[in-house]
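Workshop exercise sheet. Pairs work together: one partner reads the sequence aloud, the other fills in the structure field after running the prediction. Swap roles for the next sheet.
Pair: D.N. / O.F.
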Amino acid sequence: MKLHTAIDLFLGQYQPLTRRTYYYCLNPMMDDIGPNRLITEVNHIDLIRYTNQVKNNGDYTDRTKRKHIGAIKTFFNWLVSMEIIPTAPSSKIKNVTCDEYIGRDKAMPEDDLKKLLKFLDRNPDYHIRHKALILFLSDTGCRAGGAAGLQWSNVDFTTGTAIVTEKGNRTRPAWFFGLTTLALKDWRESQDRTQGDYVFSHRGGPIASPSLSQVFRRVCIKAGITSHGTHKMRHRKAHQMIDNGESTTDAAIAIGDTVETFIRHYAPKDFASAKEAAKRAATRAAQSKIVQIKRENTGTE
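Structure field:
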């Protein structure tokens, strides 16, 4: 199979918006490597060379670079899952690390979320699935991949806990409450699960995370607001917890981040605070040691 044929097959499984996004990322790679190159002949050297060009492209932001490299990884992992190739040559590619602060301007605005939920309330029957998805993302800060892979067998309504598998194949608990619980139960009763047990798909069959992201974007557009991505709901949850005065440890656990990653992205000032706290602790320890030495030298207790 030639590279251009494989890419066409990959793109064909997606809705138009997702297809265009992947095409934008994969087409330059195809032109660089060669559209008529046999897919079995594409190796990690080809991909490392090409992705180095992407990383050194001064016209791309770090997020654009990540999008291009992420699309390449997704494409070759799909080829492995379809048994077209035995292993993914993209496994040796290193992505671009984005260490920058993620401000509130990158989070879902509260007013937009309210408009979105009001729109869904006006269309209760048609949008049961969408309401369950949006409320779940709002409560949990879950990544699109975690929501896409969630199955009913991993949802516990008694404890309000869903076990999701996210980035890096890591499994974590995600907690939901009140309105989300009701919306999920309504959707479970309405869903046609003839093809499987997946929570947010129409008939229960597997659903790809980009497809789920496009579902979210389409609802945003229908509600008359900006076409937000699901990750904006995650950023909203993180900032919501910071604004409520929650500890960075609790906030990081709630959205499935490490504490260091959470602080770097959402609360970078905490690094300076931690440095000052460490300095104070060291000063107190030094002072205590000086007092102890003085007592020992004077023979006092």
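Discussion prompt: The longest helix spans residues 269-298. What would you look at next?
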